[in-house]
Amino acid sequence: METRIKRGQILKELREKKGLKQEDVALFLGITQQAYGRYEKGTSEPNADGFNTLADFYGVTTDYLLGREPLPDPFADLDLRDEDEKEVLAKYMSLPPQMRAVLLDALRQLGGVMIDSNGVEQPTLMRTTTTGEIEDSLKSEHEAEKDGEKFA
Hints:
The chain has 152 residues and is mainly α. The chain folds into 2 domains: 2-65, 434 Repressor (Amino-terminal Domain); 82-150, no CATH class. It is built from 8 helices and 2 strands. It is elongated.
């Protein structure tokens, strides 16, 4: 029973980290809020398909959900050298202000929360962006630069 409680705590932490209610996850799984609540309490567990679905939903492994391994560090394998960071910063600073704002927004989303215009944290799951408009803007700017090079 203690293992089930640990698994339930893991599910609860993942759900809260995403800023979701039990009802939200239950709706996604196609079960009642009470059934999902029992998963978090450790009095019941999903079947194998349920664990797979939850792992995909939360972006973790089933072994993590089962308490068999720690949450993986997505940056553990990256070799971040000072030179690389300086180059990235220089490229970031050379972008137009609008593009820098978009990149900052994306970085915040990767961090798990967004800050809305009122300064209130919002879960990224509920946030959308206008990537298509930005891509169109970038293409136009890039094409204008290429045209300028042709006539220089």
